[in-house]
Amino acid sequence: MGDTRTTARRRAVPWAVVGLWVAALVLMGPFAGKFSGIQQNRAVDYLPDSADSTQVARVQDRLPGGESTDLVVVYHRDGGLTDADRRTAAGQIDRVRAAHDLTAEPRGVPSADGTTLMYPVSSTGPGHDDDARDAFVDAVRDTAEGGGGLSVEVGGPGALNTDMNKVFATLDATLLWATLGVVTVLLVLIYRSPFLWLVPLAVAGAAATLAMAAGYGLHELAGITVTGQSGGVMTVLVLGAGTDYALLIVSRYREELRRHERPYDAMRAALRGCGPAVLASSATVAAGLLCLLAADLNSSRGMGPVGVVGVLAALAAMTTLLPAVLVLLGRRVFWPLIPAYGSRPRLRRSLFGAMGTSATRRPVTVLVGGAALLGALALATLNLSGSLKQEDSFTERPESISATRTLAAAYPERSSRPVTVVAPDGRTATVLARARATEGVAEAVPGRSGSGWTEIAVFTTAPPESPGETRTIAALRDGLDPEGAYVGGPSAQQIDLAHSEARDRKVIVPLVLAAVFVILVALLRSLVAPLLLLAAVVAVWGAALGIGGLVFEPVLGFGGNDPGLGLLSFVFLVALGVDYGIFLMHRMREESVRGAAPEAAALTALRTTGGVIASAGIVLAATFAVLTTLPMVALVELGFVIAVGVLLDTFLVRTYLVTTASVLLKRRVWWPGRLSRAPRAAAGPAERETVPAHAP
Fold first, then answer.
1. What are phi and psi of 150, to 5 degrees?
2. Alpha carbons 634 and 178: distance in angstroms, whole number
3. What confidence score (pLDDT) does residue 689 get?
4. For a tag on the chain, would you pick the N or C end, based on fewer CB atoms within 10 A?
5. How far apart (Å, rounded) are the C-alpha atoms in residues 464 and 563?
């Protein structure tokens, strides 16, 4: 009777788990579908509340009509505009004015060389509605058409936001399908089974649905800012980290199926064996991401909890749904390489064992050479160019950027994009006079008034986001601050973004290191081993950024790097890179506990975990590499640095540097724990046994 009840329980538990997941997905599916709709991608949405440009945006919201959508319609002919061109332009602008509620009469401004005519167009009709703003921009573009040598482009902040929205609108689906495709190919190659790869992939899809629903809930219930960047990174984290967890669990499950007759018992043993490593891995990633809550930037602060729900969703799916499905499918899911009960795996020479043996022959040489290589690569970070301008933020130039460049060439004496100043009532005249007297200002024009504020458009003599304009904005802020005025607009927003990023790096980097260090100390019961792992991942981060410096501008032609690249790549590379160190050092500690000598423990750990770590590293690097296919420079740079860093960590640092450092430190690597004081034991089975490197 007892055996019957046990058998029934073994059958019922997996079905119950699958049933709960199906019910959860049915309930949360509609909320997951709303995830892309809550993403905010304006520059001001990224900024902290304290920034001047944020205050300007809030004041503009309270002015008559609310937030305005500002465009510039640019008419250009290389040989000079004709009278017919000017009549065409005037007629088209009249149709725009008749069809839309504009804040002011559009006034044509001809260029000095006669090749260009620009019409500033502004409307408060769309308000905060992204769809309405995009519809307004598209309608103006449909009305303003060229031909016969006359080019017409619609630019300005409103057009730039629309072009960005169109990119981000397709980003989630593009990224999801591209990542699924990459993971599918890799899983087929790793598992060498026509069926097994479907299981972790389907479970990863369930985890992605859960993560998007949770992300929507965070936004609605806690007001967390969700951007296109954080949404894309969350998708990559779910699929990349989730697949890594699946590789570890499936590899251990395959091993246990040879020792246990029933799949249920084999899975229980597998989860007991690799569960602590998977939990510690997810904990380090979650802890690192939660440190972003200390960020000043709304976008970085929001990415923390958004990333955490992605990691936790992957962890939940891979430790509950994946085991349940595998148990229900039984051994046949591994066909044609079915692990039979009582069988032994085919012994073969371990590549990582050979690599580790070669490294330990001359450990000092290997360690010094590897450290020198990473240091040399890190020096290339000096080649990273300055902050990325908005006009350089696309890999493929949209119409708004083309319009900006046309204006910069045709109007060198003044900027086509105004700096926005808001002045309190009663001080407008003084603020206007001071603004006009500021060095670098070409013109200052008052605009809307209401709610105790007046809007002033200030045009500088320097082009947008140039050093000259940056100096002028700084001078305006210094001169107008005593009058209670705020200075904002697109260029000021970029300056505030860069300042906030610099502040966040100083605060968050130490927090991430401290949080990960505490988790490693608790897991490894040592101070030296955690310091070794942290030093390794920091070196990898510097080297990966350096490789980016050698590639971004010289090879890819990027005009700068995103201000958040350093911080975000640090958080992800430290949190994710430490994972592989955990797998290696945790196994090394197990071997040491069994009495293995330091060198034998290191080599055994490398032989037994090398294949899984390599597979997981390739999958994670490939998923982040998918970001490099997207049309946003910031995402390309982030994906490149993380992918390169993960590969460096997997094949150089873990295999050679951490292993050789552990051999050289001997038992001191476990100081001050008990293992550091234990006498060296005689060679036992753990040292003598040749452990095969199982494919995951």
1. -90, 120
2. 18
3. 36
4. N
5. 17
Q: Which of 38-42, 177-181, 641-645 has the highest mean pLDDT?
A: 641-645
- Dig out the tokens for 538 from the structure: 């920091």
Residue 611 has pLDDT above 80, yes or no: no
Q: Is 332 exposed, middle or buried (0-12, 13-18, 19+ CB in 10 A)?
A: exposed
For residues 561-571, give the mean pLDDT: 85
Of 693, 688, 685, 690, the closest CA to residue 594 belongs to 685
State the DSSP code for 673.
Answer: S
Tokens (6 digits) for 217 = 């809930």
**Helix H or strand E encompassing 486:** strand 486-488
Report the 10 Å Cβ neighbour count for 290.
17
- Token representation of residue 242: 């989730």
Measure the CA–CA gap between 188 and 167, rounded to whole angstroms. 31
List, as one string, the DSSP characters of 561-623.
Answer: B-TTHHHHHHHHHHHHHHHHHHHHHHHHHHHHHTT--HHHHHHHHHHHHHHHHHHHHHHHHHH
Q: How far apart are CA 332 and CA 601, in angstroms?
A: 35
Is the confidence at residue 692, as pLDDT, over 80? no
For residue 239, give the amino acid letter: L
In this prediction the pTM is: 0.79
Q: Are strands 486-488 and 419-424 parallel, antiparallel or unpaired?
A: antiparallel
Full strand arrangement of the beta sheet holding 453-460 = 441-450, 453-460, 419-424, 486-488
452 and 424 Cβ atoms separated by less than 8 Å: yes
In this structure, what token pair is assigned to residue 376? 């040399």
- Which residue in 470, 512, 461 sits closest to 386, CA to CA? 470
Number of residues that make up the chain: 696
* CA distances from residue 93 to 82, 105, 119, 136 in whole angstroms, order as listed: 17, 10, 8, 14
Q: What is the mean pLDDT of residues 263-269?
A: 89
Structure tokens at 82: 């004709």
| Residue linked to tokens 């292993």 | 659
Q: What is the CA radius of gyration of the chain?
A: 29
Sign of CA pseudo-dihedral 282, 278, 636, 516? positive
The confidence score (pLDDT) of residue 314 equals 93
